[in-house]
Amino acid sequence: MSPPGRPKGKFRSAQHEGTPVSPRPSPRTPPELDTLPGHLIRRLQQIAVGLFMEETADFDLTPVQFAALATVARQPDMDQRTLARTIGFDTSTIGGVLDRLERRGLLQRNPAPEDRRVRRLSITPEGQALLAQVLPAMQQAQKRILAPLPAADRATFMRLLGTLVTANNSASRAPSQPD
User: Fold this and answer.
1) For residues 87 and 50, what is the distance between their CA atoms, to the nearest angstrom?
2) Which of 67, 129, 144, 158 could be stapled to 87 by a disulfide with Cβ–Cβ 3.0 to 4.6 Å?
3) pLDDT in the model for residue 172
């Protein structure tokens, strides 16, 4: 509940515009969610997925499937574990993502010559074609995510977001290890 005189989700005053109100909960009162960076980042992730799904609806592709296809297209013959680490996805569930892509004929898993237990990934011509078709829609989703920011602030936001992700990567359940 917002204190009297302060509209919910707003900033302190014109003097402090742009500075969120600091959460000052008592030990018994939780802070307002819109003052917590974790909550806002989770909400932005939900919004980003929603915008991606709207823009790419004709292609029946999730953001994780797109990330997997795009990464394999850029780095052919990587194995499943490396893909999971590269895109910051859990190694125990990447198999299901790859199963769906393989069933659609968008990528292939082939045994590695040096270790037949390892599966090397390659994108199929159908996967390449879908990736080329979905790119404009994916890029439109990215533009929509950033559209509410003034154009001059978008690069700064992306830089700061990258700083937060990089600095906190090891705290992730699936830390990314890009090549």
Assistant:
1) 19
2) 67
3) 87
20 forms beta bridges with 11
Contacts of 127 (CB under 8 A, 6+ apart): 69, 72, 73, 101, 105, 106, 107
Domain coordinates in residue numbering, the chain: 39-150
Q: Compute how many other C-beta atoms are within 10 angstroms of the C-beta atom of residue 56.
A: 22
93-120 burial, b at 16+ Cβ within 10 Å, e below that, comes to ebeebbebbbeeebbbbeeeeeeeeebb
CATH topology for 39-150 is Arc Repressor Mutant, subunit A (1.10.10)
Positive or negative: CA dihedral 168, 154, 71, 123 = positive
pLDDT on residue 7: 46
Alpha-carbon 80 to chain mean position? 19
- Residue carrying structure tokens 């937060």: 164
Q: What is the mean pLDDT of each run of 10 residues along the chain (179 residues)?
A: 47 50 72 94 97 97 97 95 93 93 96 87 98 98 98 97 94 80
Q: Tell me the residue type at 119.
A: R
Looking at this protein, which amino acid is placed at residue 62?
T
Strand partners, 177: none
